[in-house]
Design goal:
homodimer, alpha/beta, Rossmann fold, globular
């Protein structure tokens, strides 16, 4: 068996087309959805991510602006910028790009945002609503993207056993909550595994679906899978590639041999990544729609 | 093998003694911790629960007052009372006893509380912080009580497989989050099962610890357990008992035969129940301590 690759780019394109038409509808009613991104310092990856997000916004008609503060900005500088953007009606969503320099207390920066302007769904109010099963607010982009990837691929988690590897606030924990919801496209039995799990294979071998968000290469190998498993690979890891100009290449958490036993897998690039980016646009347009409805 | 019964009353008594000494320390510094309970209508169970909670407060030196509104109170009446109690410095914690009459929107009532006065840990900010792994705020009382029950019994969930049966916001979901935390007394691999789980026994037979919060009698039987399993039974169910004056008796979610195979079980009464009540006192004194520290 050779696994079918899930085309995250194609599914993300559908979602972006839907967002674009919602943006047109909003503009017709006088609301131009806007996203404010914040970069503190000169982290090259952050600059690259944010410029990609700005390009995505442009593609679907969302206004975006990037605010840059120097590496030496104080915590208070960042909070003041957040407060200014909270009050700026041009922006329906705010994205403080992480990581920030050491002197900035990231959680407090996130908490300083209006919950309704939280583009990444990481404000405690939004995470709390998620835990209560309320799904109409901002949902963290990667887990939300994984849910949409499954839905668009026709893989219904209901009644299935899903093993989530990784317990981060960004991915593993909210995803476990989403998958276990009593809701269409969810209703799975979910096991959360992590670095404290003694024998990961014992769990993954029982899984119908494995979601990898561990951040380690070869977290899952073919020997740890049962035939026909669905593997969603959130991991992005650098491995040495001396023949490449960059000196490295990006791989996921799954070993390549997983593709010999799985029914579906996401590729290392063009899998979950574009979905995460697309869901940021969904959160932004949703925030603008809510405001336009007077919520 | 006959399971050892976990004495929730004894463990709760230790926690209450600790709370009482913290109350003494607070009063010495000029803060008298206070809890405001709200009952809307004439639900007999609510009245009985709240009077029990008031007695618990008295026992540990916490000031408490119960505010009753008639069955016909409007949603706005309840929110106005919440706002009054938010502003009342005598009360460090507010407990809106659920369920409330149909015209009252319970989630909005909870959301109207100051997060720092949320006695039950159900405000979205507190649930969100829990999902972020921040454990110094108000934590929902039953899952918090289960964690303390395990700790006090010397059962370390680290590296163990815990199956949580039930996905409520009150118990199952926050407990799964707490158990999977990278923290002392946690660090378990956690499976969340529920009514959408096809073969519950397939999961519980692999568990080192089973927590039952399903609300159905005989959710777990001996045949669904591996020998030596630890069973924490949160369930409270009425079954007919014609020979009793009340006509019913209270049983948990575990069948009696579980005691023949388990190493530890909680009894139907005096197990998790007193722990839930004790953790309400912990949340109240914690809220007062935070205020006294100027947080």
């Amino acid at each position: 068996m050779t696994a079918q690759l899930i085309d995250g780019n194609a599914i993300a394109a559908q979602i972006k087309a839907d967002v674009a038409s919602r943006v047109v509808a909003l503009k017709a009613k006088g609301t131009a959805p806007g996203l404010a991104a914040i970069i503190v310092g000169d982290n090259a990856a952050s600059i690259s991510y944010v410029s990609g997000k700005a390009a995505d916004c442009a593609e679907v008609g969302i206004f975006s602006e990037t605010f840059r503060l120097p590496e030496t900005a104080t915590h208070e500088d960042v909070v003041r910028l957040i407060e200014r953007l909270n009050a700026d009606d041009r922006f329906h969503a705010i994205l403080p790009q992480l990581p920030m320099p050491r002197q900035v207390r990231e959680q407090e920066v996130i908490d300083a945002m209006l919950a309704r302007k939280d583009a990444d769904g990481l404000h405690p109010v939004n995470l709390g609503r998620l835990l209560r099963g309320e799904l109409d607010g901002a949902i963290p982009c990667t887990p939300h993207g994984v849910m949409e990837l499954l839905r668009a691929t026709g893989i219904d988690p209901a009644g299935k056993h899903v093993v989530v590897v990784g317990r981060s606030t960004l991915v593993g924990r909210p995803l476990a909550v989403l998958l276990s919801n009593k809701a269409a496209g969810a209703n799975a039995t979910v096991t959360i595994c992590h670095t404290g799990t003694k024998d990961l294979g014992q769990f993954t071998r029982e899984a119908d679906i494995v979601v990898l968000a561990a951040g380690h290469v070869n977290t899952l190998t073919a020997a740890m899978c049962r035939p026909g498993v669905v593997v969603i690979d959130v991991g992005v890891n650098r491995v040495d590639a001396p023949t490449r100009p960059s000196g490295y290449r990006l791989v996921g958490d799954a070993a390549m041999d997983v593709r010999e036993v799985a029914s579906y897998v996401t590729p290392y690039t063009g899998g979950v990544g574009p979905m995460t980016r697309a869901m940021l646009l969904v959160n932004t347009v949703r925030a603008a729609e809510k405001l336009a409805r007077g919520e």
